[in-house]
Design brief:
Blueprint (H helix, E strand, L loop, with lengths): L3 H17 L7 E8 L20 H16 L3 H14 L19 E12 L4 E9 L11 E9 L5 E7 L7 H12 L3 E5 L21 H24 L3 E11 L1 H11 L4 E7 L5 H5 L6 H9 L4 H8 L15 E7 L7 H10 L4 E5 L10 H11 L4
Parallel strand pairs: 5-6, 5-7, 7-8, 8-9, 9-10
Antiparallel strand pairs: 1-2, 2-3, 3-4, 4-6
Helix pairs in contact: 1-4, 2-3, 5-6
């Protein structure tokens, strides 16, 4: 119920398109492969990446498994292949860094896209996109990335933006933002983060964020890599201008968006709504966090140790990388979920670029959805 304002406003944005959308008489399905496009300018950025070599024979075996998986229709068979791939991956396949990135030996990945609606009123077509995550987990549902592609009518080339949802994850806000961007001739790719939407296992209570900190760090890591693969997909599209890519996230999605942009130079424009950095200092005095901090202290985990441990998932760690991006931040002066000092800390560390403050709380920001969205659309209009 606490997110009802976000949902109502977002639903209002998408209702016109949904009401007038024409469902294809037969699903339009597109399948293909996308070359991996890891950006070169990581050298010199605030990372410490050391790539390790991979045995060519192993790379060929994994490539064949990926091809077999692309043709498999049985979910159980896909899960078995995922487990086999995971067992074959040696430690040498990882890059050593503050935020360990999985080094895939593959040169491409497969995707499948099904058009779900097409509206002449809004001038947008919407398609459901799937592609394999670069990370294999124990939950096969989570190993396939699900996304929604909002494509403006016309030949393009269009700028494109990756859209990430909020913690509640009912998808209404992300869909509303994607619709608004596409209506303004900016293609949008709403990517479901790890363990969200169709990626959530049917059994158990697995979430992206939980008290299981190692699992949370892994899920954050996976979500970042999934977004990078989403950028690969966008850059491969003929109707997309690969030099005009960006990313926007709200609340939880803004943290993933910041981490992705910090490690992905291709996402030139970035918009972070209700975001921040410096988790340990920011939440040290937060009423809801105090009991947990005290529990950690009793266990001998100091604030310094905690900062070091969660640094890979904290946008403040490599915030300086955002100085080379065109960054917009939108924050709430009375935010009771992401303390304002966290927004200010990230703003300062990322070069003190444009920031818009609203005199409201975290959930009260829903009342400012329309002006916030307008600012986002303007931000992603390349001149």
């Amino acid at each position: 119920m606490r997110m009802i304002l976000w949902s109502l406003i977002a639903i209002a944005l998408t209702s016109l398109g949904a009401a007038n959308a024409q469902q294809p008489s037969q699903p339009t399905i597109e399948r293909g492969t996308v070359p991996l496009q890891r950006a070169e300018p990581l050298v010199g950025r605030e990372t410490n990446l050391k790539a390790k070599s991979i045995d060519p024979a192993l790379a060929e075996q994994l490539q064949r498994l990926e091809e077999l998986k692309s043709k498999a229709k049985d979910p159980d068979l896909v899960a078995q292949i995922n487990r086999l791939e995971e067992s074959m991956r040696p430690r040498e396949m990882y890059l050593q860094s503050d935020f360990p990135h999985l080094m895939s030996p593959l040169t491409s990945f497969y995707y499948e896209m099904t058009r779900t609606s097409d509206s002449t009123i809004t001038g947008i077509s919407v398609s459901h996109l799937t592609f394999p995550s670069p990370v294999t987990t124990l939950h096969h549902e989570n190993n396939m990335v699900h996304a929604e592609y909002y494509r403006p009518h016309g030949d393009g080339p269009f700028p494109a933006v990756i859209v990430l949802d909020i913690l509640a994850g009912d998808q209404a806000l992300a869909r509303g933002m994607s619709t608004l961007l596409a209506q303004n001739h900016i293609a949008a790719l709403f990517v479901q983060m790890a363990y969200y939407g169709p990626r959530r296992p049917k059994e158990g209570n697995v979430r992206l964020l939980s008290m299981n900190i190692p699992q949370t760090l892994e899920a954050v890591h996976q979500s970042v890599l999934d977004c990078q693969r989403g950028a690969d997909w966008l850059q491969s599209r003929q109707e997309i201008d690969g030099n005009k890519l960006g990313i926007v996230g709200t609340s939880l999605g803004s943290f993933i968006a910041a981490l992705t942009a910090e490690s992905e130079p291709r996402l030139h424009k970035v918009a972070l709504l209700l975001s921040g950095g410096g988790f340990v200092e920011g939440y040290a005095e937060h009423p809801k966090a105090k009991p947990y901090i005290k529990m950690f202290e009793i266990a001998g985990i100091t604030k310094v140790k905690m900062q070091q441990y969660i640094a890979p998932a904290d946008p403040i760690t490599h915030a300086a990388n955002l100085k080379t991006h065109d960054l917009l931040m939108i924050a709430a002066k009375r935010d009771d979920m992401v303390p304002p000092k966290m927004a200010e800390a990230l703003w300062k560390a990322s070069g003190q670029q444009r920031i818009i403050w609203y005199d409201t709380t975290h959930y009260g920001a829903a009342l400012y959805f329309l002006p916030m969205s307008k600012a986002v659309v303007v931000h992603f209009r390349w001149q």
